[in-house]
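Q: I have two molecules that I believe assemble together. Could you output structure tokens for the complex as a whole instead of separate predictions?
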Amino acid sequence: AQSVTQPDIHITVSEGASLELRCNYSYGATPYLFWYVQSPGQGLQLLLKYFSGDTLVQGIKGFEAEFKRSQSSFNLRKPSVHWSDAAEYFCAVGSLSGGYNKLIFGAGTRLAVHP
Amino acid sequence: DVKVTQSSRYLVKRTGEKVFLECVQDMDHENMFWYRQDPGLGLRLIYFSYDVKMKEKGDIPEGYSVSREKKERFSLILESASTNQTSMYLCASSLSRGSGYTFGSGTRLTVV
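A: Yes, here they are, computed for all two components at once.
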């Protein structure tokens, strides 16, 4: 079955520290992958996406993610976290072939940033 | 800027009421989706639509129905609201498989 796992429910980092949020997926077809961010009380905003080409993708707000097929992972990184990055982050996977344009989302990782 | 608009940010309804959640997109997208979001469960797909008057069940359709009479509007209907339908409801639309979703700001529904 298709699934997305975000192993960390909560992460706390200090402002200026580096960040890595983990995402593992299980998907039989060629996946395409997304990271979204949700600020409190808001909808989800797309940070970045991958569906082919360079496995290291750059997104908005200084985020990047690396697709590793052998590990079925798509981890999100940022070299220096800002207090405004405190939010909930969702990884999602979809298929480029067959079926409808449906995404499957992970349960999310809530990021807290200490000053 | 492209937009997905959900008509209400907050709603409080009574058990047994029929509830309508409205979503409108201005991007001429074919695909529209309704999710509910609950702590620790992430986003769960209720229904989606890939064309006018077309609908498909998602993972948790029980207790819900949808309507898509026009391309830009996708309505979620709770036929008889129950307390376990208290949740954040998110509408999204997408143009194609690789384009990702554009989300609305969400409707936080409380059923009392």
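A: One point stands out. The two ends of chain B are 36 Å apart (CA to CA).
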